Amino acid sequence: MYKYPLSEQTIHEISEIKEEPLWVLNKRLEAYKIFLQKPLPTWGVDLSTLDFTQIQYFTPTQSTKHKWSDVPEGIIKDFERIGVPGRERKYLAGVSTQYDSGVIYHRLKDRFSKYGIIFESIENGLKMYPELFKKYFGTLITSEDNKFAALNTAFWSGGSFVYIPKGINLEIPIETYFRINAKALGQFERTLIIADKGSFVHYIEGCTAPQYLESSLHSAVVEIFAMKGATVKYTTLQNWSKNVYNLVTKRALTEENAHVEWVDCNIGSRYTMKYPSVVLKGDNSSGKLISLALASENQNIDSGGKMIHIGRGTKSTIISKTICQKGGTSTYRGLSKITPNAFNSRAYIDCESLLLDSDSLSQSLPTDEVKNNSSILEHEAFVSSISKSQLYYLMSKGYTSEQARDLIVQGFASSVLDLLPWEYSVELERILFHFSKEEENEKN
């Protein structure tokens, strides 16, 4: 198989294969220079073992399929084996599936497209809606933002382009699924969501990878624009294998009375650094982040979020839950900032950690700023463990030790489980069960 190494030549080849306009190629090349200049972060997880020269930066995939019956049987079996909803369901607005660097299955039901809703691969979004694409792409997360945003801008391939027209309430979700299917692969999908005035959309993203000896890199960028009165809900369930570096940049911008909600589940990966953010620009706009992270042996999950209050009367909520076992490490790292002119604003942060053994580590590293006297910021955090009294009480009601532990873990994560669509909630419950069972079996 032809290799696409870290080089300008690879960027030229990607752009040529995708038949991109010159301005996109120039943007890629500029981002590549910025990537080379920027140092690795000295905070967060240890990235010293990440070797960029060993990563494959592009993998051409099969042509896009528009009927489920046309999708290769091997891929269908992969979906069924790992528990990801495979066949397109009647209640879904659309399903997009990306293996490695490209989208192989993509469909939007005609009854939604007639309302002007756009749900395309990021490449088709560029080709079909060039002016809309250029107006927003890379404006909220620039190449200067951080080293991995620059890397994504240089090598992006695959991802989604979504536009919801003014006043359209899309009550059923748009669903996507990303999979790293090759070893030592870099996956750099790019997602751009634009919700026009008074609209509503729920975007669901599932991610996974098989286990390979060579480390893989997932470095995505997500930009969300919520116009006046719009609501965007973005749900992520990531279940990476333990050889993946998950280094992601996600940010949303809210106009007046708009609302953005992140539901973020981080499972697996060797290292994760991800902090979904909302810039509350418009007056009376709001943002919410609810995150769940699981860290086990040889895993370090550094996650959290940012809420930047700019408009007056803005509101934000961050609820972070982490569960650690077998020496796993989890860190909440967040920023809640109320700027001087964001009068009468309010921010709330709640960090909760559950340790399943004495070898694991959980820490909270918040940065909270309030720059005016009319606003309120509240922050609480606590770390707990499964106590013998909790186990004894549940076992006295007839539960086994394993069932009791599972109930405690499920209850701790219930606020996240309740927000997931049914099929993802069932999958997360299954993951939590095996997670807590793994520690119980280790003790026995």
UniProtKB/TrEMBL annotation:
InterPro entries: Fe-S_cluster_assembly_SufBD, SUF_FeS_clus_asmbl_SufB, SUF_FeS_clus_asmbl_SufBD_core, SUF_FeS_clus_asmbl_SufBD_sf, SufBD_N
GO biological process: iron-sulfur cluster assembly
Domain SUF system FeS cluster assembly SufBD N-terminal, chain residue ranges per copy: 114-174
Database matches in SUPFAM superfamilies: Stabilizer of iron transporter SufD
Pfam families, per the entry: SUFBD_core, SufBD_N
SUF system FeS cluster assembly SufBD core domain segment(s): 178-412
Coiled coil: none
Similarity annotation: Belongs to the iron-sulfur cluster assembly SufBD family.
Record-given protein name: FeS assembly protein SufB
Native source species: candidate division WS6 bacterium GW2011_GWF2_39_15
